[in-house]
Amino acid sequence: MDNNTLLTEVIAKAQTWLDGNYNEETKNEVRRLLEADDKTDLIESFYRDLEFGTGGLRGIMGAGTNRMNIYTVGAATQGLSNYLKAQFPDVPQISVVIGHDCRNNSRLFSEISANIFSANGIKVYLFEDLRPTPEASFAIRHLGCQSGIILTASHNPKEYNGYKAYWNDGAQMVAPHDVNVITEVNKIASVDDIKFEGNPALIEIIGEEIDKAFIANIKKLSLSPDSIKRNSDLKIVYTPIHGTGVKLIPRALKEYGFTNIIAVPEQNVVSGNFPTVVSPNPEEPAALDMAVKKAIETDADIVMASDPDADRLGVAVKNDKGEWILVNGNQTALIFIYYLIRRWKELGKLNGNQYIVKTIVTTEIIKQIAERNSVEMFDCFTGFKWIAAVIRENEGKKEYIGGGEESYGFLPEDFARDKDAVSSCTVMAEIAAWAKDNGKTLFELLQDRIRLWQRKRNLGSTQRKIGSRRNCTNDARFPQQSSQRNCRIESKSHKRLRFTENDRYRQRKSD
Fold first, then answer.
1. Positions marked active-site
2. Residue 222 phi, psi dihedral angles, 5° rounding
3. How does residue 2 score in pLDDT terms, banded at 50, 70 and 90?
């Protein structure tokens, strides 16, 4: 298609928004796009429809068919409503949970969705304010709902928002429901097909009661309460990076028994503009800049950060030279799995019926730890919904210990079914306290695991330099599209941070 033809089609598509049943604010924005000399934004906004894929919706906010707005969100919610009514004809009252993060328009999209669900006769449990994604997953299960949605774009730039759909197990949808919902959403041919007029009688606001229940479950995860008591004053710097974690993570840490949680005040400010960072992604060193500076000022033991919807966890620790380093996703998963399996074993909780889960691009050291302790390990596709699918398949048959992925997501429990920075933060703090009880730092604990793996791996084979890359393209377990970045054997490949006199840090190359 040539540019003139594309522009003609885009203008015609935009005109339908001026002629259709859209609000005046939206029409004014469309007029601005049409009248602009540079048609780039117009084309980007209308050249295609924003797809409701297997992961839901995600896109830049604005007017247009290729943007996140009340109409694209509305179509998704109407399609999901239609599917739920077809799937649960015998349920007297279908119900859903709606949660949202700190992003601009997330509350608006949540309220619009609540109106649409209720207009379709579906009971809505709407969180009173922003909440972590894993808490919304928990609420679906806790309240016995058939589905749920969360308005979030995770750690994407501030221009973005998203819409994630969940099934009755509290996990993101997988086949056949994901594909079937897409079919229903694609049937929404006009804005007039969307029922925007809500039924307030079917909308119930939830909040503190779910917070209490969620945290009560998290407190039951503790495997080393005596270590927490002896190290209750562990210096923990935590930042929510302007997101939902501020609602629950400091509170969860305190109720777990930690008394010295050090905030980063500038980043405790809830804001969809993320004013102190370029990207609110705890995988990025710059996102932890202020937290690490606070750790230096206070001589902290550990730094933890969560992304805007509090499902991913970033960790920084001091190495043996006193430098602060970022622990990558593979290393975080390794620390969790080692600790959980070891403590389950020491407490006599292992009987051969337990399992862990990882994605196929996550470190194989986890597998070796599981095998040595007769714990079954499941490898699954990349994406946390596949970890949740394994949990669902084994529900009532085997006992889940934990599961994670290299992209900074971990779930140390199964009462939620999405990666969970709330429970992960509390358990990671406990691991730090337990390590301290045993005369070690988290860095030393990690290095011990890696050195042990190296020794076992090098027996009868040529030693490979630490940080070298695995050739995953020839391994049948790894899809061809997997980047070799995800298959790195993680050891000294963590990002080191060196501080100048001004306490500014820069990324330092691995040894």
1. 154
2. -60, 130
3. confident
Query: In the numeric block, which tokens belong to residue 90?
Result: 């015998």
What integer pLDDT is reported at residue 466 of this predicted model? 27
**Which band of pLDDT confidence, cut at 50, 70 and 90, is reported for residue 273?**
very high
Sheet arrangement for strand 324-327: 261-263, 236-239, 302-306, 313-318, 324-327, 495-499, 505-508
Q: What is the pLDDT of residue 1?
A: 67
> How large a percentage of the chain has pLDDT more than 70?
89
User: What would the DSSP string read from start to end of 73-86?
Assistant: HHHHHHHHHHHHHH
CA 361 to chain centre: 17
Interatomic CA distance for residues 117 and 96, integer angstroms: 8
Distance between CA atoms of residues 330 and 312, nearest Å: 13
Give me 179's structure tokens: 């594909």
Helix (H) / strand (E) element for 251: namely helix 245-256
Q: Which two tokens stand for residue 505?
A: 């840090």
For residue 220, the SS3 value is coil
Residue-level pLDDT at 3: 82
Q: Which three-class secondary structure state does DSSP give residue 405?
A: strand
CA proximity to 341, closest of 399, 299, 405? 399
Q: How far is CA 334 from the centre of its chain?
A: 18
Q: How far is CA 33 from the centre of its chain?
A: 34
> What is the pLDDT averaged over residues 379-383?
95
CA pair distance 181, 85, nearest whole angstrom? 12
pLDDT at 502 over 80: no
User: What is the Cα–Cα distance from 347 to 221, expressed in whole angstroms?
Assistant: 13
Give pTM, 2 decimals: 0.89
Per-residue three-class SS string for 138-159: HHHHHCCCCEEEEECCCCCCCC
